[in-house]
Amino acid sequence: MKTATRSALLHTCLHAAKRCGVVASCAMVLVGCKSETPLPPNAMIVRYEVHGAVEDLQILTAPADRNHYCSTATLPWGHTPSGAEIPPGPPNFTLDFDLRADGRKPGLYFMAFGYHLGMTSQTDPADDWIEVNAGGKQWVAHGLQRDPSFNATFTFSDDGQSGSFIAHGLHPGPLEAPVDMKSSVQVSGTWTCASVAN
After folding, report:
1. Is-contact 43 64, C-beta < 8 A?
2. How would you classify the pairing of strands 68-71 and 185-193?
3. pLDDT digit string (tens) for 17-49?
4. With 0-12 CB in 10 A as exposed, 13-18 as middle and 19+ as buried, what is 131?
5. Which residue, 93, 103, 121, 192, could crosslink 115 as a Cys pair with Cβ 3.0–4.6 Å?
């Protein structure tokens, strides 16, 4: 492995990760991959694959910053389009990997509603939210406003720094656009964050 090229290492990691499927502990497969150019200590690693109307597979790495992060912060006060106030909700687990910087480039965002530290699995199709860029499009799912058949399952390590996800029923976005029920995808993958902001 020490003499392998970076592309060969990524291929090895990808092959191992595909055998794992969507098991939370398999997020560590990517952490164990050593490249010739070491990742920075605050690196964020995301792997996802998309199936359905488009097919895509990505392994993404970046230093943590405002466009690449994991967070358990509580949502702030908000407002509906009519101006009514929305009080803060419970803490959520949020992952953002460069989703909104450019919809034509790979990116992923999800929010697991009601997460708390130590939670090892979660599903709340009425409130969970996931978006992914694939095939030059943004694909979105949110139970309250999109496809009622949307469902997602998240698994977490004890510290929330790694985990896995699988979601069905994502449709072309953005969220405020009418739902195109003719096209849908499934997305699954794993993540590792060096730290989780709160």
Report:
1. yes
2. unpaired
3. 333 333 333 333 333 343 334 556 788 999 999
4. buried
5. 93
Sign (positive or negative) of CA dihedral 59, 60, 64, 67: negative
pLDDT tens string 11-23: 334 333 333 333 3
Residue that is written with structure tokens 């290492």 in the block: 9
| CB-based contact 112:154 (threshold 8 Å) | yes
pLDDT over 90 at 189, yes or no = yes
Alpha carbon separation from 171 to 26, 48, 139, 154 (Å, rounded): 27, 16, 5, 19
In which residue are the tokens 């943004």 written? 138
CB burial readout 99-115, b (16+ within 10 A) else e = beeeeeebbbbbbbbeb
Classify residue 24 by its DSSP letter. Answer: G
User: In this structure, what token pair is assigned to residue 192?
Assistant: 């590792």
Bond prior to 174 in cis (omega within 30° of 0): yes
Kindly state the tokens that stand for 140. 């979105």
Rounded to 5 degrees, φ, ψ at 5 are -75, 165
- State the DSSP H helix or E strand holding residue 20, giving kind and residue range, or none if neither: helix 6-20
State the amino acid at position 178 in one-letter form. Answer: P
